[in-house]
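Write out the bound-state structure for flavin mononucleotide.
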Amino acid sequence: MAQMQIGSVKLESPVFLAPMAGIADLPFRLLCRELGGVGLAGSELLNSRAIARRIPAVCEKAKLHPDDRPLSVQVYGNVEDPLPQAGAWAVEQGATLIDINMGCPIDKVCKKNGGSLLLKTPGRTANLAKQIIDACDGVPVTAKVRLGWGENELTAPDLAKRLEDSGIQAITVHGRTTSQKFSGRSCLDGIAKVVEAVSIPVIGNGDINSPESAQRMFEYTNCDGVMVGRHSMKEPWIFDDISKSLRGETPIFRDRNMKIKIILRHLELILEHRGERSALHCITNRIALYGRTLGHIKPLKERVRLAKSADEIREALEAWLTLELVH
Ligand SMILES: Cc1cc2nc3c(=O)[nH]c(=O)nc-3n(C[C@H](O)[C@H](O)[C@H](O)COP(=O)(O)O)c2cc1C
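---
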């Protein structure tokens, strides 16, 4: 497996956990890291204006934990927003890298000119990137883009080149356009065009759900790293599986007991770092996704979904573990 490096930052694996607002929070990132194979994880996207105003709930999301490194802190905003100041603040907090969101398709973000809208104006966006880089005191700055706004505006290769010229040190490409949101498939040809356009590392993203699909992303696009988002909600051990397979090792076979213990660990990590309300909210919501790899566990899913406390969730999961051992 080739060593992956972004600017001066050396990474142990070229397999990254995607930034996912409301999903890839501190407990989930710690869980994925404990399971292995995560070369880099991204924070949830942070509004630069909220950082400038030091809104506690937003600042909390960038708080560094010693076991949550290397961490890429992602900021968003438009050309008039205090993005350079937000980047500088994240550097002060100890971020390993600063990532600029140029791919969010959600109205709330891109209607205010942040996220994906930056894809439409490559020149202005590259100027903005330069200001952020200047403010970040040598800490590498990266960008996460989609292929373009719509299928007739595939600006990503041109934008990527301009960003490289401004000093951006790596680019993640989600192989869909903004208009597509999450429909269709991530387009490997589109990602390959960005790889051809630049000399900095490119991370391929979109629809990776197995070591085979990661391998396909590497081979087809010639990218330097891969990023996994949604599938990690079902299988947070996917990073370990992909990294092992890239090293020529066989991924671990995880039976149902091992997977239930992983959900229990997730529960404990949320309780430790976020408290009981978050734990209830998260596990009751995500048990269906976790459940997809667990076979026929309808009664367990029902019990977890209806749980009123973390203890009830724990008991439900542990009872199923005991059942497994008895049978
Ligand atoms: C619930 C959710 C939240 C997301 N939040 C962010 C975000 O904050 N910043 C970002 O750059 N991308 C965000 N994304 C996009 C992912 O990082 C990733 O690019 C996309 O899901 C495609 O990868 P996947 O097919 O592996 O999920 C989000 C995606 C989802 C499903």
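---
The chain is about 45% helix and 15% strand.
The pocket of flavin mononucleotide is lined by residues 18-23, 44-45, 74, 101, 103-104, 144, 174, 205-208, 228-231 (CB under 6 Å).
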